[in-house]
């Protein structure tokens, strides 16, 4: 139990109290740590439980809630600033890598260290990517986002430190080959022709040809670069590999790559609705993305959405109370004093997650 917390019964919950530890039901989070209790939440809990306990903060709850929000905002800005700085520095580093520059590799290692330091709490990294993605920067900021997500997945799957470092190096460098593609093609604001798309698809192999020659780098890093667009059913590129032929680093990077790309504006497409990325990743785990890695990714990520404030297509503000693992785009929400199951309200959907 944390300092300045206490355990009380559900029947002792009062409006304004702040939850100090996640409350789980059947393996999913019902009440998220640091969420402020409302009267509607109390009524919902009473309906779901006959008896039970919950851990809350002892100190002044209004002050505690304000303190938590201020801390989150400060951490959020810190992550955003750090990721932007790394993205800018990567431009110079990528130019140096072409010359097999050991100093550039030392910078990649330092970027990896910084990224791994910034992924706690992971909820702020996830929220950052869901809110903003990597924008139109499909190389540098995208690489940082993918590296952060890959680091989280690597930690969740229990990768040892040495392999986790190599995974993050690979994720940072995964789109290095795009530096060999004409910028006007990468920034094109209308749909790509098949020939143009085929040109862009060469980036995985172009990146691999440079990265594999770096004498100071483990070969596993280059395999992640080469194979991050391969898919388990053989529908990926550049080699059309299947199943176990695809390196584990590439399987992890592929999930992070898809998630960030869907949450980002590109010249030729707009970012999708906030929960579409989760659903698409889940759908692609059936034959394309690695099922076990996706399962671990989703099990952790959906917890971060609980308690978040969102905007409906009706422009009404609501709060997510519980995610629906069977329909990720349709969670249980609280609108004013009313609980709404979006799975039953076909005309309503979440169009935006609010900061």
Task: Describe, in plain words, how this protein is organized in 3D.
There is one protein chain. By secondary structure, the chain is α+β, with helices and mostly antiparallel strands. The protein folds into three domains: 59 residues, Molybdopterin biosynthesis moea protein, domain 2 (Alpha-Beta Complex), CATH 3.90.105; 241 residues, Hypothetical protein af1432; 50 residues, no CATH class. It is built from 13 helices and nine strands. The strands form three sheets. Strands 8-7-6-5-9 form a five-stranded antiparallel sheet. Strands 1-4 form a two-stranded antiparallel sheet. Helix 3 crosses helix 6, helix 5 packs antiparallel against helix 6 and helix 12 runs antiparallel to helix 13. The longest helix is centred in the N-terminal third of the chain and has 37 residues. It is globular. The model has no long low-confidence stretch (mean pLDDT 86).
């Amino acid at each position: 139990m944390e300092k300045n917390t206490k355990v009380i019964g559900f029947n002792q919950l009062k409006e304004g109290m702040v939850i100090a530890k996640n409350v789980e039901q059947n393996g999913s989070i019902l009440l998220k740590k640091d969420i402020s209790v409302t009267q509607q939440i109390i009524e919902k809990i009473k309906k779901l439980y006959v008896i039970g306990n919950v851990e809350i903060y002892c100190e002044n709850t209004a002050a505690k809630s304000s303190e938590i929000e201020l801390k989150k905002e400060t951490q959020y800005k810190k992550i955003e600033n750090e990721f932007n700085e790394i993205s800018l520095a990567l431009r110079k580093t990528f130019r140096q890598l072409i010359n097999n520059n050991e100093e550039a590799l030392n910078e990649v290692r330092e970027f990896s260290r910084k990224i791994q330091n910034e992924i706690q709490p992971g909820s702020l990294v996830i929220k950052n990517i869901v809110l903003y993605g990597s924008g139109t920067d499909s190389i540098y900021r995208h690489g940082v986002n993918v590296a952060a997500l890959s680091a989280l997945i690597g930690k969740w799957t229990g990768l040892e430190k040495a392999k986790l470092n190599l995974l993050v190096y690979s994720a940072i460098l995964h789109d290095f080959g795009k530096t060999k593609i004409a910028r006007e093609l990468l920034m094109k604001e209308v749909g790509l022709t098949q020939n143009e798309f085929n040109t862009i698809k060469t980036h995985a192999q172009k990146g691999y040809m440079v990265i594999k020659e770096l004498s100071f780098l483990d070969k596993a890093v280059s395999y992640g670069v080469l194979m991050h667009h391969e898919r388990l059913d053989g529908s990926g590129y550049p080699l059309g590999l299947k199943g176990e032929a695809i390196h584990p680093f590439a399987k992890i990077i592929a999930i992070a790559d898809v998630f960030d790309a869907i949450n980002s504006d590109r010249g030729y497409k707009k970012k999708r609705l906030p929960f579409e990325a989760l659903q698409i990743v889940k759908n692609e785990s059936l034959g394309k993305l690695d099922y076990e890695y996706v399962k671990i990714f989703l099990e952790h990520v959906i917890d971060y959405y609980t308690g978040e404030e969102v905007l409906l297509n009706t422009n009404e503000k609501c709060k997510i109370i519980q995610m629906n693992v069977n329909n990720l785009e349709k969670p249980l929400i609280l609108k004013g004093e009313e609980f709404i199951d979006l799975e039953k309200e076909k005309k309503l959907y979440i169009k935006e997650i609010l900061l």
